[in-house]
Amino acid sequence: MLDDESFCSIYNSTFYRNTAFYGGFSLNCVKLSLLGVIGAAFQSSLNISHSFFIENSARSGGVIVGQEFSFVHLSHSTMFNNSAESGGGAIAVAFASLSISNCVLESNTADGHGGLLVASLSTIVIQTSILNNNRVNSASGGALFVTDLSRVLVVSSSISDCYSFNDGGAIYIREKSQFLIAHSKVDRNQAFEYGGAVLVENSQIFYALNTSFSHNQADYYHGFEKVIKMILCLFLVEEFIQMRLDTSL
Known about the structure:
Elements: E1 7-11, E2 14-16, E3 19-20, E4 25-27, E5 30-32, E6 38-40, E7 45-49, E8 52-54, E9 57-58, E10 64-67, E11 71-75, E12 78-80, E13 83-84, E14 91-94, E15 97-101, E16 104-106, E17 109-110, E18 117-120, E19 123-127, E20 130-132, E21 135-136, E22 144-147, E23 151-155, E24 158-160, E25 163-164, E26 171-173, E27 178-182, E28 185-187, E29 190-191, E30 198-200, E31 205-209, E32 212-214, E33 217-218, H1 237-246
Protein backbone atom coordinates (compact mmCIF):
# COMPACT_ATOMS: atom_id res chain seq x y z
CA MET A 1 0.00 0.00 0.00
CA LEU A 2 1.42 3.39 -1.06
CA ASP A 3 0.62 6.31 1.21
CA ASP A 4 1.55 9.97 1.84
CA GLU A 5 2.97 11.01 -1.56
CA SER A 6 4.93 7.78 -2.00
CA PHE A 7 6.24 6.49 -5.34
CA CYS A 8 6.48 2.89 -6.54
CA SER A 9 7.67 1.46 -9.86
CA ILE A 10 6.96 -2.17 -10.83
CA TYR A 11 8.74 -3.56 -13.89
CA ASN A 12 8.89 -7.01 -15.47
CA SER A 13 7.09 -8.67 -12.57
CA THR A 14 4.37 -11.29 -12.10
CA PHE A 15 1.60 -11.19 -9.47
CA TYR A 16 -0.17 -14.55 -9.25
CA ARG A 17 -3.05 -15.61 -6.97
CA ASN A 18 -2.68 -12.87 -4.37
CA THR A 19 -5.67 -11.85 -2.25
CA ALA A 20 -6.71 -8.74 -0.33
CA PHE A 21 -9.96 -8.56 1.64
CA TYR A 22 -9.56 -5.82 4.22
CA GLY A 23 -11.40 -2.65 5.12
CA GLY A 24 -13.32 -0.66 2.56
CA PHE A 25 -15.53 2.38 2.23
CA SER A 26 -18.64 3.25 0.25
CA LEU A 27 -18.99 6.15 -2.17
CA ASN A 28 -22.34 6.44 -3.93
CA CYS A 29 -22.82 2.67 -4.00
CA VAL A 30 -19.27 2.06 -5.22
CA LYS A 31 -17.37 0.14 -2.58
CA LEU A 32 -13.58 0.24 -2.66
CA SER A 33 -11.06 -1.78 -0.70
CA LEU A 34 -8.53 0.18 1.33
CA LEU A 35 -5.76 -2.12 0.17
CA GLY A 36 -6.45 -4.11 -2.96
CA VAL A 37 -3.57 -6.32 -4.05
CA ILE A 38 -1.74 -3.07 -4.91
CA GLY A 39 -3.06 0.17 -3.42
CA ALA A 40 -2.18 3.84 -3.93
CA ALA A 41 -3.56 6.69 -1.84
CA PHE A 42 -2.89 10.23 -0.60
CA GLN A 43 -1.21 11.66 -3.74
CA SER A 44 0.98 8.61 -4.30
CA SER A 45 2.24 7.54 -7.74
CA LEU A 46 2.28 3.97 -9.02
CA ASN A 47 4.03 3.12 -12.29
CA ILE A 48 3.62 -0.44 -13.65
CA SER A 49 5.10 -1.73 -16.91
CA HIS A 50 5.85 -5.03 -18.67
CA SER A 51 4.17 -7.04 -15.91
CA PHE A 52 1.57 -9.81 -15.54
CA PHE A 53 -1.34 -9.98 -13.08
CA ILE A 54 -3.07 -13.36 -13.07
CA GLU A 55 -5.88 -14.74 -10.87
CA ASN A 56 -5.59 -12.13 -8.12
CA SER A 57 -8.64 -11.21 -6.06
CA ALA A 58 -9.80 -8.49 -3.69
CA ARG A 59 -12.94 -7.01 -2.22
CA SER A 60 -12.80 -4.24 -4.87
CA GLY A 61 -10.23 -3.76 -7.57
CA GLY A 62 -8.91 -7.28 -8.06
CA VAL A 63 -5.39 -5.94 -8.73
CA ILE A 64 -5.19 -2.16 -8.24
CA VAL A 65 -7.01 0.35 -6.06
CA GLY A 66 -6.22 4.04 -6.59
CA GLN A 67 -7.79 6.67 -4.39
CA GLU A 68 -7.36 10.08 -2.74
CA PHE A 69 -5.63 11.96 -5.59
CA SER A 70 -3.22 9.16 -6.47
CA PHE A 71 -1.89 8.58 -9.98
CA VAL A 72 -1.59 5.13 -11.55
CA HIS A 73 0.11 4.45 -14.89
CA LEU A 74 -0.11 0.94 -16.39
CA SER A 75 1.68 0.11 -19.63
CA HIS A 76 2.71 -2.95 -21.69
CA SER A 77 1.13 -5.26 -19.12
CA THR A 78 -1.46 -8.03 -18.95
CA MET A 79 -4.30 -8.46 -16.45
CA PHE A 80 -5.93 -11.87 -16.82
CA ASN A 81 -8.63 -13.66 -14.82
CA ASN A 82 -8.59 -11.36 -11.79
CA SER A 83 -11.71 -10.90 -9.70
CA ALA A 84 -13.42 -8.65 -7.17
CA GLU A 85 -16.07 -9.48 -4.62
CA SER A 86 -17.56 -6.02 -5.11
CA GLY A 87 -16.68 -3.65 -8.00
CA GLY A 88 -13.79 -3.47 -10.47
CA GLY A 89 -12.63 -6.96 -11.36
CA ALA A 90 -9.10 -5.70 -12.02
CA ILE A 91 -9.05 -1.97 -11.14
CA ALA A 92 -11.02 0.39 -8.91
CA VAL A 93 -10.33 4.13 -8.65
CA ALA A 94 -11.90 7.01 -6.72
CA PHE A 95 -10.58 10.59 -6.64
CA ALA A 96 -7.65 9.36 -8.78
CA SER A 97 -6.03 9.50 -12.22
CA LEU A 98 -5.41 6.35 -14.22
CA SER A 99 -3.53 5.91 -17.50
CA ILE A 100 -3.52 2.57 -19.37
CA SER A 101 -1.53 2.05 -22.56
CA ASN A 102 -0.55 -0.97 -24.67
CA CYS A 103 -2.18 -3.43 -22.28
CA VAL A 104 -4.25 -6.61 -22.53
CA LEU A 105 -7.06 -6.68 -19.96
CA GLU A 106 -8.89 -9.98 -20.33
CA SER A 107 -11.31 -12.31 -18.48
CA ASN A 108 -11.60 -10.21 -15.34
CA THR A 109 -14.82 -10.49 -13.34
CA ALA A 110 -16.71 -8.66 -10.60
CA ASP A 111 -19.81 -9.49 -8.62
CA GLY A 112 -20.48 -5.74 -8.36
CA HIS A 113 -20.15 -3.03 -11.00
CA GLY A 114 -17.37 -2.94 -13.58
CA GLY A 115 -16.06 -6.32 -14.70
CA LEU A 116 -12.72 -4.72 -15.53
CA LEU A 117 -12.81 -1.25 -13.97
CA VAL A 118 -14.99 0.90 -11.76
CA ALA A 119 -14.29 4.64 -11.61
CA SER A 120 -15.72 7.31 -9.32
CA LEU A 121 -14.69 10.99 -9.40
CA SER A 122 -11.66 10.03 -11.50
CA THR A 123 -9.89 10.74 -14.79
CA ILE A 124 -9.14 7.71 -16.99
CA VAL A 125 -7.18 7.45 -20.25
CA ILE A 126 -7.04 4.10 -22.10
CA GLN A 127 -5.08 3.89 -25.33
CA THR A 128 -3.88 1.15 -27.68
CA SER A 129 -5.25 -1.58 -25.40
CA ILE A 130 -7.42 -4.70 -25.65
CA LEU A 131 -10.34 -5.13 -23.25
CA ASN A 132 -11.71 -8.59 -23.89
CA ASN A 133 -14.12 -11.03 -22.20
CA ASN A 134 -14.55 -9.06 -18.97
CA ARG A 135 -17.83 -9.62 -17.15
CA VAL A 136 -20.13 -8.58 -14.32
CA ASN A 137 -22.02 -11.35 -12.58
CA SER A 138 -24.74 -9.35 -10.79
CA ALA A 139 -24.55 -5.63 -11.72
CA SER A 140 -23.71 -3.28 -14.65
CA GLY A 141 -20.78 -2.37 -16.89
CA GLY A 142 -19.24 -5.55 -18.30
CA ALA A 143 -15.92 -3.79 -18.91
CA LEU A 144 -16.20 -0.21 -17.59
CA PHE A 145 -18.49 1.31 -14.96
CA VAL A 146 -18.07 5.10 -14.85
CA THR A 147 -19.80 7.28 -12.26
CA ASP A 148 -19.64 10.44 -10.12
CA LEU A 149 -18.30 13.13 -12.48
CA SER A 150 -15.58 10.89 -13.90
CA ARG A 151 -14.03 11.61 -17.31
CA VAL A 152 -12.87 8.80 -19.58
CA LEU A 153 -10.99 8.83 -22.88
CA VAL A 154 -10.55 5.60 -24.89
CA VAL A 155 -8.39 5.79 -28.02
CA SER A 156 -7.27 3.16 -30.56
CA SER A 157 -8.53 0.29 -28.40
CA SER A 158 -11.00 -2.59 -28.62
CA ILE A 159 -13.72 -3.64 -26.18
CA SER A 160 -15.13 -7.02 -27.13
CA ASP A 161 -16.97 -10.10 -25.81
CA CYS A 162 -17.81 -8.48 -22.47
CA TYR A 163 -20.96 -9.31 -20.50
CA SER A 164 -23.16 -7.53 -17.98
CA PHE A 165 -25.80 -9.25 -15.90
CA ASN A 166 -27.77 -5.96 -15.87
CA ASP A 167 -27.04 -2.99 -18.17
CA GLY A 168 -24.18 -1.90 -20.41
CA GLY A 169 -22.50 -4.99 -21.81
CA ALA A 170 -19.29 -3.04 -22.43
CA ILE A 171 -19.76 0.42 -20.87
CA TYR A 172 -22.10 1.93 -18.28
CA ILE A 173 -22.02 5.70 -17.63
CA ARG A 174 -23.92 7.65 -14.97
CA GLU A 175 -23.85 10.56 -12.47
CA LYS A 176 -22.74 13.42 -14.76
CA SER A 177 -19.72 11.58 -16.15
CA GLN A 178 -18.20 12.21 -19.59
CA PHE A 179 -16.93 9.56 -21.99
CA LEU A 180 -15.16 9.85 -25.34
CA ILE A 181 -14.17 6.84 -27.42
CA ALA A 182 -12.26 7.39 -30.67
CA HIS A 183 -10.70 5.21 -33.39
CA SER A 184 -11.79 2.07 -31.55
CA LYS A 185 -13.99 -1.02 -31.87
CA VAL A 186 -16.83 -2.15 -29.58
CA ASP A 187 -17.91 -5.59 -30.73
CA ARG A 188 -19.86 -8.68 -29.58
CA ASN A 189 -20.71 -7.40 -26.11
CA GLN A 190 -23.88 -8.49 -24.34
CA ALA A 191 -26.16 -7.23 -21.58
CA PHE A 192 -28.87 -9.30 -19.96
CA GLU A 193 -31.06 -6.19 -19.73
CA TYR A 194 -30.33 -2.88 -21.53
CA GLY A 195 -27.53 -1.58 -23.74
CA GLY A 196 -25.54 -4.43 -25.23
CA ALA A 197 -22.63 -2.10 -25.97
CA VAL A 198 -23.26 1.14 -24.04
CA LEU A 199 -25.82 2.42 -21.58
CA VAL A 200 -25.81 6.10 -20.67
CA GLU A 201 -28.11 6.87 -17.76
CA ASN A 202 -29.99 10.16 -17.43
CA SER A 203 -28.14 13.19 -18.88
CA GLN A 204 -24.55 11.99 -19.05
CA ILE A 205 -22.34 12.78 -22.06
CA PHE A 206 -21.08 10.14 -24.51
CA TYR A 207 -19.10 10.79 -27.69
CA ALA A 208 -18.01 8.27 -30.31
CA LEU A 209 -15.63 9.36 -33.06
CA ASN A 210 -14.56 7.02 -35.87
CA THR A 211 -15.56 4.02 -33.76
CA SER A 212 -17.38 0.88 -34.91
CA PHE A 213 -20.12 -0.85 -32.92
CA SER A 214 -21.10 -4.30 -34.20
CA HIS A 215 -22.83 -7.50 -33.09
CA ASN A 216 -23.68 -6.21 -29.61
CA GLN A 217 -26.77 -7.72 -27.96
CA ALA A 218 -29.21 -6.88 -25.19
CA ASP A 219 -32.07 -9.11 -24.11
CA TYR A 220 -34.49 -6.31 -23.15
CA TYR A 221 -33.55 -3.68 -25.71
CA HIS A 222 -31.44 -3.34 -28.84
CA GLY A 223 -27.72 -3.85 -28.83
CA PHE A 224 -26.39 -0.33 -28.62
CA GLU A 225 -28.31 1.92 -26.27
CA LYS A 226 -31.18 2.59 -23.93
CA VAL A 227 -31.18 6.36 -23.58
CA ILE A 228 -28.02 7.70 -25.21
CA LYS A 229 -26.92 10.88 -26.95
CA MET A 230 -24.89 9.81 -29.97
CA ILE A 231 -23.62 13.26 -30.88
CA LEU A 232 -20.70 13.15 -33.28
CA CYS A 233 -19.31 16.56 -32.52
CA LEU A 234 -16.03 18.12 -31.55
CA PHE A 235 -16.69 20.89 -29.06
CA LEU A 236 -15.27 18.92 -26.12
CA VAL A 237 -12.60 16.99 -27.99
CA GLU A 238 -9.89 19.55 -27.24
CA GLU A 239 -10.66 19.29 -23.54
CA PHE A 240 -10.38 15.51 -23.67
CA ILE A 241 -7.09 15.72 -25.56
CA GLN A 242 -5.75 18.02 -22.86
CA MET A 243 -6.96 15.51 -20.26
CA ARG A 244 -4.94 12.86 -22.09
CA LEU A 245 -1.83 15.03 -21.99
CA ASP A 246 -2.32 15.89 -18.34
CA THR A 247 -2.47 12.22 -17.32
CA SER A 248 0.55 11.06 -19.32
CA LEU A 249 3.86 10.46 -17.62
